[in-house]
Amino acid sequence: MCSDMDIYNMYFQFLDESILAFSVSIPLSLEGCRQVTRPFRGNLVCQIDGQEQNCTISCWQGYSFSRAVLPSYQCGASTNYKWSHETEDNPRLALPQCTKYKPPNKIAMVMNLAYSTNLTCDGFDPARDSLVHQTVRDKITLNVKTLSCVQDNSCSVKRAQVSGCSTQSPADQTHRRRRRSVELIQITIRLERDIHVPDQQNLTSEQVTNQNSTIEAVSELQDAALQLINKSASGQFALNVDHQVYDVDTERTQAYGMQVCPHGSVRMNAQDARCVPCESGWYENKEACYACPPGTYQSQEGSIYCQDCPRGHTTIGPGATEEEDCEVIAL
User: CA neighbours within 13 Å on the CB side: how many for 17?
Assistant: First the structure.
């Protein structure tokens, strides 16, 4: 432990896997502040001002964090000598770790279509609501199966759903009569196409977007989006319910594209086409990384699950990375 007079900043130089030199600052602990360790494949730079310590973290070139990081990590008199990331869930003071960028394996196009506001499913007439829901689904099937990329199997339909109109009526009839939806009845269509981008060291976002496979996929999915827009504009999604015609409100139509990451990895920036595998101790679920819950661990990067500790053992918190982190449960 350092006294008020024993405050130093020590700088080291390391070589990363690309033999590129960089510097990292590792401070000696201030009185009462525990020492933190730099991220794996990353940098820790700290500034000391009196009894205040302020640190930032970053990753080497070609690597990134797979979860959010704080703008700075602080410890000192103002924090009662506790680090800003020192919590019950993080007793080991683990900082986010860096993992190697990976290319996406698919491109997706999502289109949202909304019907005019006078078409509703209000819950008062379950039979009518069910008819509306099924009629909309039939329209989706009819229009999607005629898309060029669907017909030649170069793209796949990953989602074709109706929202704002449920076929399930509540068991409580009184509650059902009171329930009245004000949601628009919407269609969501998601198409995906495989791409093949070489996995290389120091992968850049531009290398992903400029790959021929990516360009072809984007072009084909844009064409599919245009076909759907033309179909909606020409009344091919129109419904006849109770002898009244309801159609899509073309001003509410939205379409957007995105890269799709392999299982176990996520995109951290909407403007960045690259994927980042979840760090060890974490797992991916629905395009986000989550810490392995207490009683589990994961030693591998880019996982979609966590391993259970041996029977009678648990971890002291979430995010455990090794079986050795599993300790005998105290009675």
Answer: 14
Local confidence band at 175 (pLDDT 50, 70, 90 cut-offs): very low
The answer for 324, left when phi > 0, alpha when psi is -120 to 50, beta otherwise, is: alpha
Which of 12-21, 24-33, 80-89, 277-286 is least confident? 12-21
Res. 239 pLDDT band, cuts 50 70 90: very high
Counting residues of the chain whose pLDDT is more than 70, the rounded percentage is 86
H, E, C per residue of the chain: CCCCCCCCEEEEEEECCCCCEEEEEEECCCCCCCCCCCCCCEEEEEEEECCEEEEEEEECCCEEECCCCCCCEEEEHHHCCCCCCCCCCCCCCCCCCEEECECCCEEEEEEEEEECCCCCCCCCCHHHHHHHHHHHHHHHHHHHCCCHHHHCCCCEEEEEEEECCCCCCCCCHHHHHHCCCCCCCEEEEEEEEECCCCCCCCCCHHHHHCCHHHHHHHHHHHHHHHHHHHHHHCCCCCEEECCEEECECHHHCEEEEEEECCCCEECCCCCCCCEEECCCCEEECCCCEEECCCCEECCCCCCCCCEECCCCEECCCCCCCCHHHCEECCC
